[in-house]
Amino acid sequence: MAVLAPLVQEPAAQPALTTDALVVFGVVLVALVLFLTERLPIDVTAILLIVILVVLEPWTGIDPETGISGFANEATITVLAMLILSGGISRTGLVQELGRRMAAFAGDSIHRQLFATVAATSPVSGFLNNTPVVALLVPVVTDVANRGNTSPSKLLIPLSYASQIGGMLTLIGTSTNILASDISGRLGSEYPELHRFSMFEFTQLGALVTLVGGLYLIFAGHYLLPERVPPRADYLEEYDVGNYVADVAVVPGSPLVGESIGDATAALGPEIDVVQVVRDADRSIAPRQETRLHEGDVLVVRTNRDAITALEDAEGIEPVGQPRLDGDLSAEEGIITELVVSLDSRLIGERLDPEAFREEFDAAVLGLRHRGELIAERIVGTRLGVGDTLLVQAAPETLERLSRRDDVIVAREPSQPDYRADKAPVAVAIMIGVVAVAALEIYPILISALAGVVAMVVTGVLDANELYDAVEWDIIFLLAGVIPLGIALEESGGAALLAFAVVETASVLPTIAVLWLFYMLTALLTNVISNNASVVLLIPVAAAAAAGIGANPFAFVLAVTFAASTAFLGPIGYQTNLFVYGPGGYRFTDYARIGAPLQLILSVVTVLGIAFFWGV
Prior knowledge:
- This protein is an alpha+beta fold.
- Among the domains are: 241-331, Regulator of K+ conductance, C-terminal domain (Alpha-Beta Plaits); 334-410, Alpha-Beta Plaits, CATH 3.30.70.
- The protein has 25 helices and ten strands.
- The protein has helices spanning 19-37, 42-55, 57-60, 64-67, 74-91, 94-103, 110-125, 130-147, 153-166, 175-186, 203-219, 235-238, 261-268, 305-313, 354-361, 396-402, 424-439, 445-458, 473-491, 494-505, 511-526, 531-548, 553-563, 575-581, 588-613, and strands at 244-250, 273-279, 282-285, 298-303, 317-325, 335-341, 364-370, 373-374, 389-394, 408-410.
- It has a five-stranded antiparallel beta sheet. Strands 8-7-9-6-10 form a five-stranded antiparallel beta sheet, with helices on both faces.
- A hairpin with a 2-residue loop joins β2 (273-279) and β3 (282-285).
- It is found in: Membrane.
């Protein structure tokens, strides 16, 4: 009953509101606005924070050396190493094979499909970074849904949420855990109860959270999700692509003979898009603009209803057959599928230029979902962001190649995946070794993870030039930027001021209620800014507040850590939510519809679990 007793303690002296604290609060406000509005890419925002903190050194106390200390921080380097190790596992095809095996028995039962999704995702996410896990499983889960005549919308948000709760099983499950461990260790000199987390420090609580969350997703959550995308969806209908396709032949003596595709497009008019060239029974899908036309070539062009008649009068070409709707394209004319803009894509921030896209990716853009919303008007010039989904038509071999690139996620499984399956046992052995060395405390996780990276290259699981591709550099820069911000918040007294305000407003509440409030505050904050930024800002405040009310600081640190990995209320709080946004055809409110009850359930389970295992 002690945890339910009202707080009774001696009133603490209120920390002074200094100019230093006000300046740091201002920097924090700027950071929150930039993270929320996404006016700048997240890595650029992080660099800007370093610059601001160092320029304002007289008030923030952050000198140049401290400003860049985040790049050499143990948490940053550990996260970098774990991302590379996750990339090595991904290259073997283990994750996809696990997903396919778990889906083999799913059939047309929605509960078995959800069980396969949760069971294939959560345990793996406890040891691998969940971002590549979800990226790899999006096409697998979509195929499971389509084969079982289930809407992919019923499975994709559960996929993302299962990866988040699975990340709480171990220290290395998420970058947030590793960063929280580093902050907890740094605060240990001030609060004796705090220390760096061991590998399985909170596994018992993580298992409880994963079990409860998984049961909710399997048996209750799917009832709250609408079928935004029908099973075996007709992409053209879903994207409202109502254009017509016509075949026109280049006649003898045509002025187009010897001209390029680009010249032909300019001559035929802006509404005409040459998507294929058929020459002597050979079909070129998404031809390059510099391709030269020959006499007798048949151009497959896409246009709207009004421009169809213009083709009949165009000089140098002759219609072949009757125009038909886009939906009547045959399989040999190319596969129509979706491409999701990935976290590290070079397309982020770029304005969509279908012609340039065709040149680089050998794929014709048919439609676009931007932030989950279908772009009905002209898609040209739309600035692309993470999670945006492009409807494209491309040759099978092109999609095979794109599935191996980091710019996009192909929302269908490659027919001939290029995996190093023979290296799977080696990759698993390396991963087990990394975990074992850290768990037995032979060496810190930083050293064992770096040793694992070297082993991945030496054994051929990864090529040396693939190390850099495996790293999500925006996460690394984010960590490097927010770490000095957290230091400034502590050193300026800002954290102590916020903690005092919490203690004063919660003076009539039981300790466990204050713990729950910190959980909910973190959960709400992590839905609008980065989860890593949330723990940096709130762990020092939570520890100081716990000390101020005579509670266990470690319990409060754990509450913040767990809550930071529960971005269940919208698509922008966590990168895996963005990956499923387009393929699921979701709206913003769909996340909160299934996520709000899950957030509340896990808040109670987590807080009561912390009280039971560690006391408050």
